[in-house]
Amino acid sequence: MLLTLELVFIGIAVLFLISIIANKFSERLGVPALLIFLIVGMLAGSEGPGGIPFDDPTLAQLIGIIALAYILFSGGLDTRWEEIQPILWQGIALSTIGVVLTAVLLGAFAVLVLGFSPLTGLLLGAVVSSTDAAAVFSILRTARARLKGNLRPLLEFESGSNDPMAVLLTTGIIGLILTPGSSIFSLVPTFAQQMAVGGLMGYGLGMFTVWFINRIKLETEGLYPVLTLAMVLLVYGLTTTIGGNGFIAVYLAGLIIGNSVIVHKKSLIRFYDGIAWLMQIVMFLALGLLVFPSQLASAFVPGLLAALFLIFIARPIAVLLTLLPWKMPMNEKALVSWVGLRGAVPIILATYPLVAGVPDAAVIFNIVFFIVIFSALVHGTSIPSVARWLGLAGPLEETGQLSREFDVNPDTPSELLELVIPPDASAVGKQVVDLGLPTGTLIILMQKGDERFVPVGSTVIGAKDTLLLLTTDEMTESVRARLLTPKEEKETPQSTALTVQDCPEGTAGPLTVEEPPEEMTESLYEQESPEDNTESDPSSPR
Known about the structure:
This protein has 542 residues and is mainly α. It has 20 helices and six strands.
């Protein structure tokens, strides 16, 4: 059959549709999306039913780099700075010292057990030394894997910032292999330069992007996402050109933009959520197409041994040694050790030796691919269970749809928070006036079943009710604790506060009343929802 452009379009569309539908079932089965996308790519490849010929590691590497840049930017855009601050130094330590320790330990194993030469074994360790941002973000941001405390921000920050060290180690060791006589200590100044330049460029260009978005005043809202798409490529390209690490630059730029006041911020975050998924599908499909399943058989034994050593010995030792200066409970360190997901980044890095023509590059690629598959099966399916076993599983939250069409003025500190009340929450059975919400917080919309309305003071909170609250970033955790704390846990008394808002004029100052009479609080809610419109308006308050 003659391959026409139309048939190419049909093939691409079918691959995307299969990946999306398969991902829906993977969530129900608890299987990571990356595994589904890789399998679809392998089936579509030259040795699968799809029969698509693809054997171009250079092109796969290019696709992977572009996709990873947008995934990291999206991850930074959706990360709160106040979540990062408490774990900043732990995350930096894991993304640098932890990566080096993992690479050295696995490299030693590859030399002593698998029979690799020292530099080749160290290259294998470097390639799989970093956790994967795409895999970690997609798994930890689902309700199944919600974690307590600062564990999710720590793991996400580590995965988003440890790629530069892995890239540096991989490229540096490749240079040592191809240039006999060079010293491994020459990597130290190169790493310092890449991290420093990458950090400065990410911060500077992130601040410039915030200023530019707020000043350009485009006529069409749809052009703002296009503008940021160009900025991501610009940040990565400029940083890499002057000797910095582009990955850390785009992640920091996203972190700065996401924590700044910009116009159409909510629509940008929604846009990049879709872009991140698109990039994951494209990246994993391309990497899956690059794999020849018939060659994986020879990598089964060394790949299995390396994966077991990495998961149960190298990663735990690296984490425990790296986190020694901080007093973390042992169960938290155990969970950090377990969430060592390997994904697209190791496979992308495994293409570097292929492109450079390093001896045994094909062997390394197949072993790395097997490690990624094994890690996805073991880690991706077990994180929720391990978190519950260690007592670190947070309360489940279901993401609703009430806030999708709402936005707040970027010039105010207001923030929309949407919560689904768990059946065991202490808020169940209470009236709105009895919740004791923090100062400056209001429930602006509520959903019971299929009915949506504005609650009043006497409205009773039920299990599985969805609440849309107007609050601020500083109060978010306090609101979550007040509404989602299980009944058996003792609640800390808080002062009750009410906020009166005048939408056309902006946000009014908070009105705080210490231990207000119930009748007074309820009457204020009722003043905001006059009863004379109750019968005529189906969305009127109760």
